[in-house]
Write a structure and sequence with these properties.
The protein has four helices and seven strands, in the order βαβαββαββαβ. It has about 150 residues and is an alpha+beta fold.
Length: about 150
């Protein structure tokens, strides 16, 4: 891979495809895609929420991320995001929720989705997940942070 970030729908999908191909060629356990920090800043400004309840300067939540490995997507969702994810999955019949895990000590749910599709369709799903599930702006930058 020669680039590690993208900020338009077409370039984000290409980055996802390139990251998956690089992950497969390297034989790594998974690749991780993460939304850039501008999403967190925009969200905080729009919501006008404090950095966190403890006031220690740490962000209230990490930006959205999606991992892919062994034909499985892995992501974390709030309850509202999970509802939107289930709605989105209706448009992608080759993608099925395989596991939901909601640890008591964490807010939200970890979701594992089988993705029995080609890299182009997986890239479309990832980009739509960012837009529809996580409600990221159309100009959101994603980073391939682990390949």
């Amino acid at each position: 891979m020669s680039r590690f970030s993208a900020d338009t729908p077409k370039e984000r999908r290409k980055l996802v495809m390139d990251a998956i191909v690089a992950h497969r060629e390297r034989g790594s356990p998974f690749c991780t895609l993460m939304v850039g920090q501008e999403f967190q800043t925009e969200t905080k400004i729009e919501d006008e929420e404090p950095e966190n309840e403890n006031g220690d300067g740490e962000p209230a939540e990490a930006p959205p991320w999606i991992q892919f490995g062994d034909q499985t997507l892995n992501l974390d969702c709030t309850d509202e995001e999970l509802d939107r994810l289930k709605t989105l999955l209706r448009e992608f019949p080759a993608f099925k929720i395989e596991q939901l895990h909601s640890p008591e000590e964490a807010e939200g749910t970890n979701v594992r989705i089988s993705a029995k599709a080609d890299v182009n369709r997986i890239a479309q799903f990832v980009d739509q997940t960012l837009q529809e599930v996580y409600e990221c702006p159309k100009s959101t930058t994603i980073w391939a942070v682990e390949v």
